[in-house]
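Notebook entry, structure prediction.
Reason for the run: the old model in the group folder had no record of what sequence produced it. Starting over properly, with the input documented here first.
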Amino acid sequence: MGFFTRKKSNETVVETRDEKKDGAVVEVDEVAEETGLSKVGLIFACGAALFSDGYANAAIGPVNTILSGYLYPAEIANTNYSQLLSSMAFAGTVVGMLTFGFLADKVGRKSGMLAATTIIFVFMALSSAAKAGDSIPGMLKALIAYRFLCGVGIGAEYPSGSVACSENTEAKGVRKDRQQMYFILATNSMIDLGFVVASFVPLVLLWIGGMGYLRVVWRVTLGLGCIPPMILLYFRIKMREPEAYRKNGMKNVEIPHWLIFKKYWPRLVAISICWFIYDWVVYAFGIYSSTIISVADPNSTLYTSLGWGCLANVFYLPGTIIGALFVSDRFGPKYTMIFGLCMQSLLGFVLSGAYTPLTRPENIAGFTILYGVFLSFGELGPGNSLGLLASKSIGPTAVRGQYYGLAAAIGKIGAFAGTYSFKAIIADLGGSGTYKGDTGPFYIASCLALVSAAFVYFFIPNIDADFMAREDIAFRAYLEENGWDTSKMGDSLIVDEEKIIVHDKHGEEVIIDGPGGAMK
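New structure, fully documented this time:
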């Protein structure tokens, strides 16, 4: 058996145990030993549940197509079941983001992650087994209800899992020149991977079973979505709260909301507006995928429709991966986002201006490549950077969950609004199939991308290594300048140069004089 110490390095407390092996004393990372994960693995355990966000949102597309176009067209015709299947998860996600944003700050990141994972697992499983006797409308209503509740779990992941993921990127042992990369790969890249897998799974199932097994295809497609959260639940049960939250959270004290808002409202408003614009224009940016499919595959079948949908989602992956590996840590997420938005705007104008010749059958391959590059820039820039800026720059640890959840919820409302508003815009411009109807929304979205870039440039700071740790120090100083007592911030661990105070299993204080010093 070894002995337990807590060592202070700059502003990070590292929990270790010294053990003797082969006559030598080695230092064992207690966190890694308890969870079975390295520091990088812990980042992914916090953020990778967003795979379920991408999977759940993308999977409902082919499922909806199968239900409304092949299995139950008569039952769904003249109803709003199809629209509700697509939109109810959005509503649930907003509820989850706002509710768990508060809980992540006042109860804990870990509790929020456990609840989110459980909710997603349960209601993805129930969605795949949705049934109401022999009633098809009853089954569809049950599926819609489960989609809403699954959305609550997905929404809970953002202020709980993503925020914990960002805080763990600044843990000791994580490379400082790779902090942004790890966050992106664990969050946005997971969402994009979920998109791809969700469009590929029903295609594979269709290849295996054929058109005679469509009921199996849609149920198994939804049911497979409960596997990732079930795997993550094991690691999340064993993990601890992020060190930043344990040191700088306000779990046990009243949060001075007005004081915090006065300092951070420009960032909160700017990020919320950017997220709203980005999610709002995503609908417009998706219009050209339908154009490509209609020209390249005029005699579409369910097989080819699913195949083209999978190809469209694959275009997201190069952008998010290249941005994570080579761009974000080098230039910072602020300038990476501005670059991505400007490139999307430029390509958007090119695609719209040359729309007529590019959409001829002989040129559709070139149009597809340009559109794929366009989508990749969207992921390299705003796709990768929005969540990163929201989690790290929007505010201090004490309200990070609430501010992140609010900004993300506003973004989801933008996505919901875009789904309906752009249909009206297309109709006013002459309708789908006309030049103005097909290109007008793209022109609008390209202009708004520049507006979003301007908000980022003027109101949001750039992020570098250990930005959140420095922000928390500045935040404590700000509170003290305004007469607020910061001594009770944090959880059960307080560290300074002279002593370390911990609480034993009975809740009693144990004081250690100096790092590694004697206990009293």
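Summary: The first strand starts at residue 3 and ends at 9.
The old model has been moved to the deprecated folder.
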